[in-house]
Amino acid sequence: NAGVTQTPKFRVLKTGQSMTLLCAQDMNHEYMYWYRQDPGMGLRLIHYSVGEGTTAKGEVPDGYNVSRLKKQNFLLGLESAAPSQTSVYFCASSYRAYEQYFGPGTRLTVT
Amino acid sequence: QKEVEQDPGPLSVPEGAIVSLNCTYSNSAFQYFMWYRQYSRKGPELLMYTYSSGNKEDGRFTAQVDKSSKYISLFIRDSQPSDSATYLCAMEGDNFNKFYFGSGTKLNVKP
Known about the structure:
heterodimer; A: mainly beta; seven-stranded mixed beta sheet; four-stranded antiparallel beta sheet; globular; B: 111 residues; mainly beta; 0% helix
């Protein structure tokens, strides 16, 4: 039982490049979330999903897109990366919304 | 004004001390209150959650919610070096699936 996994663990992008972060969970959870964590800012919700085929905006959605084509996967896309998107990205999943399980994170640097 | 305020610390205590970690919030609609522990370069892990006001105890950890003061606390008894981590409070927003995290308090327990 791997829990929540994230791919890749590290990535360096140049401004304007695109990439997709993959989150996978094997706990059959309905809810999935993408957060970013910046020093002094805590975790901020980017987008979330309440089930397969659904997505919704969180607190800081601009510059990101998401898709949930399969229940176990939640993808976060950056179409045109900017230095302000340098951050650590965490994916989480949950059966009950207030009991979230987090992945190990992806460290993204945009130069 | 941030939805959730948390003193970033760092807080340094000797082994065996009682630790008190706190958060304040501004939205009286919050109902679920969570505490997460995050070790360096790892994802957050849920310690405990509380619904509405009151206390909840789990081993050496006690969570306390005072909705009248918009103030929550986490107490750690008999603190251990293994408790050294960043502690994040989190609260469910007025949208059921949105959560707001504090910026985290870094705790160092010295042997």
